[in-house]
Amino acid sequence: MSALKEGEFVGSLDCGTTSTRFIIFDNRANIIAQSQEEFPQYYPEPGWHEHDVNELQETCDRVIEQAVAKLEEAGYTRNSVKVIGVTNQRETTVVWSRTTGKPLSRAIVWDDSRTRGNVLHFENLLETQGIEIDGKVRRGKDGALAIKELTGLPLSTYFSAIKLRWMIDHREDVREAHEEDDLAFGTVESWIAYNLLGGVNGGQHISEVTNASRTLLLNIRTLKWDPALLRFFGFRESVLPRLVSTSEVYGNIASGPLKGVPLGGLVGDQQGALIGNKCLAPGQAKCTYGTGAFLLFCTGTDIVYSNHGLLSTVAYQAGPQSKPVYALEGAIAVAGSAIKWLRDSMGLIESAGQINTLAGSVPSSSGVYFVTAFSGLLAPYWDSNATGLLIGLTSYTTPAHVARATLEANAFQTRAVIDSMVLDAHSDLAHLKVDGGMTNGDLAMEVLADVGGFEVVRPEMRESTALGSALLAGSAIGLFGWDISRPETLMEVNTARSTRFNPRTTEKQRAEAWHGWQRAVDRSRGWFETTAE
């Protein structure tokens, strides 16, 4: 066996909602080695979704080990990995003991909707008591606007503060840790970084700003935890992690095959995909189709507040002293998970890839609409009491029509977000860059273009989320000359050709289909009757 040679590569640990992968890239975003592993999902009650974060961390450790083994099989030493980044599912809420380093509860996942009552409670609190900011009490709709001005976000089951409040109120171990000042709170990157950097033996309790901007606790102008929000939700400041930028060296990996390698980039998965698609300038947008779908539109160093149901969020901060870059975001809770539902719960398909074949066997959905509001509707509707709905069914309807309606649901929701984005940004979208597992099917992309009326651009290398954290990590140490604040240094990255999908429908056809979708959404809304907690 020939001696292993040392190269220069960057690793990315991508901690998604259903699986974790570790990918090793070269300077042009070619994949040198990778490993992926799914981890268990827990649904203890309707609308609930949990993760065991010990299992999550174990999959992280295994995929790193497996990818490094494949790197060595390819002829390179493990020392070839010069730095790694982490990208992660956002909003998912993790709590652990600062004393023991052990989790105090399963994590509540971003799409969990158990906290409807908590949202109603805080909406009522705004009406009765309001929120005090800089000595002024703001109540009712003005109070909700104040929270949006601070965080860019509405009150919703989606965000971490609401989930943390539920944990403290309903989990005795969490409540006691909070009362005894032993509680550590974080999103997934906080937990992963804590463990990679040593855990209870020297690990750091940190949170990166794109993830922190999804908690309802961060002032997105100052990039600091806001005391008014802490008072409003009733949290000790000591539970919060130290805030860090998106691209800097946070420390070195404490153990395993990459022991001593710097951890140099942390980023929420959707911001990671924005960076991986190199949408770094104002007006550039991408949509990632995974478990859910997330469309981000870069607005530069200006915060653009939405009047049409979108979120204002931090896109990235290129270093500790850099100005933050912002984005408008439209979040769709259910995209690929609807296909998983057809496979696992309904048995209409045997594999996710079969949906394109089944849906392609009919020319249209024949009036069937599928509002995939399994945990309510996110942008631009923001109705946590909406329900999933199949409507337009007749004796003519077949599984193929339902499959096609599932693909169309994804496209209609994307169009709803883009229509809002155009109104807020006062700018038309020339084309939409896409990535994520759902984009592998040509039919899904053709349906997206036909429903939306815009060009869809799908890159050849679609691991954009992982690539984003790799670019941030490389930039943190100047690897390959990358500098995330200077996009021209990334010109040679991921330059493979793209596939383009253009609309085949007429404007009249799109308008008629859109009208039907809006009617279906109206019928799905307000189904659940929620009481305040």
TrEMBL record:
Q: Name one GO biological process term.
A: glycerol-3-phosphate biosynthetic process
Cite the Carbohydrate kinase FGGY C-terminal domain residue spans from the record: 285-476
Q: What is its EC number?
A: 2.7.1.30
Carbohydrate kinase FGGY N-terminal domain segment(s)? 11-276
Q: What are the UniProt keywords, alphabetically? A: ATP-binding, Glycerol metabolism, Kinase, Nucleotide-binding, Transferase
- Top enzyme category: transferase
Assigned GO CC terms: mitochondrion
InterPro entries hit by this protein: ATPase_NBD, Carb_kinase_FGGY, Carb_kinase_FGGY_CS, FGGY_C, FGGY_N, GK1-3_metazoan-type, Glycerol_kin
Q: To which pathway does this protein belong?
A: Polyol metabolism; glycerol degradation via glycerol kinase pathway; sn-glycerol 3-phosphate from glycerol: step 1/1
> What superkingdom does the record give?
Eukaryota
In its UniProt record, a GO molecular function of this protein is: glycerol kinase activity
As for family, the record states: Belongs to the FGGY kinase family.
Q: What is this protein called?
A: glycerol kinase
Q: What is the scientific name of the source organism?
A: Lactarius akahatsu
Q: What does the organism's lineage look like at the top?
A: Eukaryota, Fungi, Dikarya, Basidiomycota, Agaricomycotina
